[in-house]
Amino acid sequence: MYRADVSGKGVPASLLMASLQASLRSNMDRMEDPVSLVGKLNGSMCETTAPDKFVTLFYGCLNMKKDTFHYTNAGHLFPVVVRDGGMVEVLEYSGLILGVVPTFTYEYRQFKFKPGDTLVVITDGVTEAESGSGELFGEERLYNLLSTLRGRSAFEVKEAIVESVRNFSYPKGASDDLTILVLKRKE
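Below the sequence we write its predicted structure tokens.
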């Protein structure tokens, strides 16, 4: 599972994302090793992208037999785990964004991911949405919202985030895309 965000907008950003996806597919043999895969993607991005372009990426794998999720993070916003009991845990690790230093070594991380737990990964369009007075939606507002969504389906969690950001940024609306990935462990 991965979530990425590219710098810029329009055609150049779309091409950068397409390049990342092609690199990801060409490294299928590394799919279960987040650190190796992300390191390889970083090298590819450094070789093929302009110095002012970059990608953030969160990549991870779920082992349902061991109830573990192992991952690495390349400059992406910190993902959040909402435990079955409602406690919110922020996965506070991030390595360097992709495309900057070809030899950067990413760290392997893991956490217990049990039935009832929910993983939420967003892009900065959520946290950087502005109210009419210029206040940012921010991480704390997101964490507080997530703590109230215990027991909800992945779809309901995503919809609650979108609705909250829309209400917060009304009437102006969000100035960036709202990309939200929600993984709910059922069994």
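Residues 90 and 156 are 20 Å apart (CA to CA).
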